[in-house]
Known about the structure:
Order of helices and strands: EEHEEHHE
Low-confidence stretches: none
Structural class: alpha+beta
Number of strands: 5
Largest sheet: 5 strands, mixed
Strand content: 35-45%
Amino acid sequence: MPNHKIAVIRHETMELIVVPLDTVFEYRSQENKLAFRAELQSHAEDAGFTGSICLVWPYAGGMKFLAPRAAHEFFAGLSMAKLSAQVNMELVW
C-alpha cells in the first residue's frame, strides 16, 4: 500500500499538506514533478484533506519546494529539518 509521511500545517487561511521527499526528487523532470504533485493531491482529496499538496526536498544545503504561489513566502523562511520535524500524519492509499 503506497504511503507518504506528511505534515499538515495551517498558514494564514491555507491548509498546507507538506510532503518531505529525498534529494533524488530534484532530478525528475518538471513535468514529472507536477504530475507527482497532482497524483498526491488526488489521493489527499480522496482521504478527506482540503489543503494543497506542497512537496519539499533537500538541495545544496538548503531546500527546494513545489507549492502554490501563495505559500512561497512561507516556505522560503523554513528549513527542511524544521518541516520534517512537523510530520504528524501519513497519507495512505
